[in-house]
Amino acid sequence: MTSKNRLRQFFFPSITPKFLLRVVVVALSAYLVFSYVLIPIRIQGSSMEPTYHNGSINFCWTLSALFSKPQRHGVVAVRLAGHKVMLLKRVVALEGERIEFRYGKLFVDGNTIEEPYVRYPCDWNLSSRQVEPGSVYVVGDNRSMPIGDHYFGQASIKRIVGVPLW
Amino acid sequence: MVKMESQGQTHSPIQTPKQGNFSRPTSGQIGQRGRTPPQPRLSPLTALKKHPVIAVLLFIFGVLAVLILFPSEEKKVRKQFKALSNVVSKAPGENVFTTARKAQEIVPLFDENCELIIPADSVSAYFSRGEITSYVIRGRTQFSDLSLTFVDLSITFPERGTAKVVLTAKLKGKVVNGERMDETREVQSTLKKIKRKWYFTAFEVVEVLKK
């Protein structure tokens, strides 16, 4: 087969049963992968600035949530009612730990936790509280806004869908 | 040199009246020349078997007609959320007539009393239709544009005439003073069916992240 014919065959394939089967397999695989394994996400909002910018595109890698437990400093996607809207937050404390903010500094079980990903000034104060069993404490990286305006807190591990791919 | 020989007869010999093979047409045959013989009438089932494409198209149209004319209960519940989204949302520069029409459309969506629970703000109270309408109207005036959308609706019917819906509600808008608002919450809603119509009876904001 000449290269011209190959090119023609690639762009204008003859509709054979084998070709149709291939199309169905590719479409089905793409649907399964991009619906359940690598969910495409568009980041909206500035709660994870400067790590993740408003409007950027990423993928949610769901197998990570299936085969590993959330780790401190890891970024996770927390689902709401379904997979169409998720919250992108960073895990700062694990189940059973006590968390506290003092003048913007994070304390877990009374120890200061260094957070190199927090780049903007923060003056939050939050009294000490324990993370319930089966939950993790998640916060965004952008803590420049007043504490009341930032949506954070403890989320059930069952709600964690996956992690961003990059 | 290759000799070509015709094998067999390819043309029928031309007959002339002189050869005596022609016979005069009968009076019944006059006027019938060139017409196809009348075909026997096909039954609808046989006709569909003969034309499978038409059969498939008819089937699709039939299914669509049934779905449109007789919507499922789930579809009716979804329609109520769509209506609520429509009456709460506000386009920039909305005119007075649209505002008035939307205010009237809020009332028939809710039951006589509707419960609202917001655990984060320690709110748990019943509101009458009138109160809800006035709250929504007042709330809409605070925004120059507002959009309320519901996604990821999961509808269940725990008992006859009751629907429980878990969904994600997105409220996005621009306050009159220019401030932007963008809130996303998981909501659990209950609807009751009264006289063939679904009415909202409760809304509970689910605390996904507990401070």
For the biggest sheet of chain A, the summary is: 7 strands, antiparallel
Record the strand order, biggest sheet of chain B. 2-1-6-5-4-3
- The number of helical runs of chain A is 3
Q: From the helix content, strand content and strand pairing of chain B, which structural class follows?
A: alpha+beta
Number of helices of chain B: 5
Calculate the mean pLDDT score of chain A and round it: 93
Q: Helix and strand succession of chain B?
A: HHHHEEHEEEE
Inertia-based shape of chain A: elongated
CATH topology of the domain at 73-206 in chain B: Nuclear Transport Factor 2, Chain: A
Rg over C-alpha atoms of chain B, rounded to the nearest angstrom: 36 Å
Q: Measure the end-to-end span of chain B.
A: 105 Å
Count of the separate structural domains of chain A: 1
Question: What is the N-to-C succession of helices and strands of chain A?
Answer: HHEEHEEEEEEEEE
CATH first level of chain A? Mainly Beta
Helix content of chain A: 10-25%
Helical residue percent band of chain B: 25-40%
pLDDT below 50 for ≥5 consecutive residues: which ranges of chain B?
1-20
Structural class of chain A: alpha+beta
Low-confidence stretches of chain A: none
Cα Rg of chain A: 22 Å
Write up what this structure looks like.
The complex is a heterodimer of chains A (166) and B (211). Chain A is an alpha+beta fold. Chain A is built from three helices and eleven strands, in the order ααββαβββββββββ. Chain A has a seven-stranded antiparallel β-sheet. In chain A, strand 3 and strand 4 form a beta hairpin. Chain B starts with 43 loop residues before the first helix and ends in a 5-residue tail after the last strand. A six-stranded mixed β-sheet of chain B has the order 2-1-6-5-4-3, covered by helices on one side. Chain B is built from five helices and six strands. Chain B has helices spanning 44-50, 52-69, 73-88, 96-106, 129-141, and strands spanning 110-118, 123-128, 143-159, 162-175, 180-194, 197-206. The model of chain B is unreliable at 1-20 (pLDDT under 50). Chain B has a domain at 73-206: Nuclear Transport Factor 2, Chain: A (Roll), CATH 3.10.450.50. In chain B, 31% of the residues lie in helices and 34% in strands. With 211 residues, chain B is α+β, with helices and mostly antiparallel strands. The A-B interface holds A 44-45, 78, 80-85, 87, 89, 126, 129, 138, 151-155, 159 and B 151-154, 166-168, 170, 182, 184-187, 206-211.
